[in-house]
Amino acid sequence: MLGNEEWAPHQGLEKAYDPETFRELGHRLIDRVADYLKRARARELPVLDMPEPGAMMEAWPSEFPDRGDGQIVERLQRFIEQANHLHNPGFVGHQVSAPLPAAVLCDMIGSLLNNGMAVYEMGPSQTAAELHVVRFLADRIGFDGDSGGVLTHGGSIGNLTALLAARQARAGQDVWAQGQQENYAVLASAQNHYSVARAVRIMGWGEGGIEPVEVDGDFRMRPECLAAAKERAERSGRKVLAVVASDCTTSTGSFDPIEAIADFCGVHGLWLHVDAAHGGTALLHSNHRGLLAGIHRADSVVWDLHKMMLMPALITGVVFRENRRSYEAFAQEASYLFEGDDPEKEWFNVGLRTMECTKRALGTTAYVLLQAFGTELFADYFDRALALTRSFAEMVRSSADFELGLEPRCNIVCFRYVGRECADRNAQQARIRNQVLKAGNFYLVQTRLGQSLYLRLTLIQPFTTPQMLAELLEEIRSAAQE
Ligand SMILES: Cc1ncc(COP(=O)(O)O)c(C=O)c1O
Q: For 350-365, how does the pLDDT look when each residue is reduced to its tens digit (9 = 90+)?
């Protein structure tokens, strides 16, 4: 038998769990975060100051000591300094939000409570929050009371989850129990996000698992080409189970026409999955709902709240028109967690509907922010982002030395510099982007449309202004001279 003294925790643990130590650290860190937010908003630090990856590895010690140095705030401050600063309004790059600062506090409580979310008893109030948030998304999609779903860590897992359910629902056999007896395929435009291709490969369908559907000049799926795509897939020995619509697409912000695609799915008994990871937030504003007309006819929808809902990564809604379908993706039994053979009776155990077992309480952050700020804030933010995009597109259109890749429909703009004679336009755009990144005032990305390379902006930062974007065009002009 060990005596009481032998059972005493390591001294370091006493200090690590000491509430007063935590209070002091927390206050210091929050002060630093608030200062950081001020500096980032005022653009007092470069959006991105990035050494070569090897140099960055060198800059951070790789040895982990037996006895720590207690430097938590200082080390976190260093991470803050060396980050890509999404809170700087010059961030106009990828589709990741500058989260509401209050979200940081929500996430802190999520980490503190660490309620795992697979089963109700491991996160009772958080389960209610998650299911209410899913209900909110379902209502905005226009689904009725039979709908339901789950939150996942990101749109990639969300797309996989929806397509697993599609397979189980449309394969005509119990794939979950018996494995795949046939070769399957989904139809999608080549503009779909790569997570769809990954989902299809994870399910073992290989390269032919996506049959591409042609797009129009604005990179929207052409629904009149669906029949030919289905025939092509069938001729190569595949059973087509679903169509994936992208609303909007990642590269160009184009909206696939859901009504016409839903008509096709209805006639052919196919599952319709709408990847609205980015565009879903259009549903919150009456001026923009029309971009997703027909989405209520989808069988499943993915909607990322960490893109156009000002929330931190990752919070994704995977919403099914028929709630019972949400149990089909993962139909296995885990008797130590779940009871009985009717998963719907266990609607409160959200782990039945996702591949994640332990899962952060994603719904709590979303619930608190939606309640605290109200849905109007998110709707207005989306509306402003689209207005800013229109204003920037007009600037590009009216400048002889720039051209638009396409007319933007969402808050994603593809454009390029065409001012000076240049033998290799693509290399020129890449060079310009590198120059702009080096200057540190803006972070923008690039994308290929056909054979051409375009600069690409996502106007996702809530405080970017038309004036800043005019400065960006000037900066691009200067970079092109060099
Ligand atoms: C249309 C679309 N779908 C899915 C994803 C993947 O989402 P996540 O990054 O949350 O996994 C993205 C990411 O940019 C996207 O643009």
A: 888 888 889 999 999 9
Show the 3-state SS of 455-474. EEEECCCCCCCHHHHHHHHH
Which of 243, 244, 360, 348 lies closest to 306, judged by CA?
A: 360
Other Cβ atoms closer than 10 A to 286: 9
Residue pLDDT, tens place only, 253-293? 999 999 999 999 999 999 999 999 999 999 999 999 999 99
The verdict on the CB of residue 246 being under 6 Å from ligand 1 is yes
435 and 353 in a common domain: no
- Cα(295) to ligand 1 centroid in Å equals 18
Ligand 1 neighbour 192 (Cβ under 6 A): no
Summarised one tens digit per residue, pLDDT across range 177-192 is: 889 989 999 999 989 9
Q: Which of 153, 189, 250 maximizes ligand 1 atoms within 8 Å of its Cβ, making it the mutation to test the pocket? A: 250
Atom of ligand 1 nearest to the CA of 304: 10
Which residues are CB-contacts of 340 (< 8 A; sequence separation ≥ 6)?
346
Concatenated DSSP letters of 214-226: -B-TTS-B-GGGH
| CATH code, domain with 445 | 3.90.1150.10
Q: How many CB atoms lie within 10 A of CB 161?
A: 26
Does 261 fall in a domain?
yes
| Rounded CA separation 21/81 (Å) | 24
Distance between CA atoms of residues 173 and 180, nearest Å? 8
Q: What is the largest CA-CA distance in the chain?
A: 85
Mean pLDDT of the region 139-158: 96
Contact by Cβ (8 Å): 310, 99: yes
In the structure encoding, which two tokens stand for residue 265, read together? 């799915």
Do both 355 and 281 map to the same domain?
Answer: yes
| Protein residue with least CA distance to atom 16, ligand 1 | 250
Any idea what the CATH number is for the domain that residue 205 is in? 3.40.640.10
Report the amino acid identity of residue 387: A
Whether residue 75 is predicted with pLDDT greater than 80 in this model: the reply is yes
CB of 411 closer than 6 angstroms to any ligand 1 atom:
no
Which atom, in ligand 1's list, is nearest to the CA of 306? 10
> How many structural domains is the chain composed of?
2
CA angle 218, 449, 193 (to 5 degrees): 80
Q: Are residues 359 and 432 in the same domain?
A: no
Two tokens at 341?
């053979």
